[in-house]
Amino acid sequence: xxxxxxxxxxxxxxxxxxxxxxxxxxxxxxxxxxxxxxxxxxxxxxxxxxxxxxxxxxxxxxxxxxxxxxxxxxxxxxxxxxxxxxxxxxxxxxxxxxxxxxxxxxxxxxxxxxxxxxxxxxxxxxxxxxxxxxxxxxxxxxxxxxxxxxxxxxxxxxxxxxx
Length: 163
Hints:
single chain; 5 helices; alpha/beta; Rossmann fold; 5-stranded parallel beta sheet; globular
């Protein structure tokens, strides 16, 4: 009989979570952390900084870009502490600049260690969210890994039961 107190063997499986400002992202993050912990995997976090829409002067645009990147790095460091506590591993952190869908697809193509994308579906009337819609529709054929979609309204307790 297997001893459940022993940590699982490292599998090399990496669960990627896109860090955005949505409420449902927390469900995806918790799910990914718990799955990583129980399967011997790890979590990777991606924050995409969208370019400023209107820039009068290059210097101002560069300053805005640098500030956005610094904010993204601070956010990811804060989230990394939470991921480490929940999953038992330090996450891999990625900051990209561009359109979130495009940068996500590029990262998945470039990083062979990423093996599962974990997204949470939006809970509002506007639908599941732009990434979920795009990656289960028109862009699904561009993925080389499975996508796990977590209902965004799951509580931590419900996710713990599932994982």
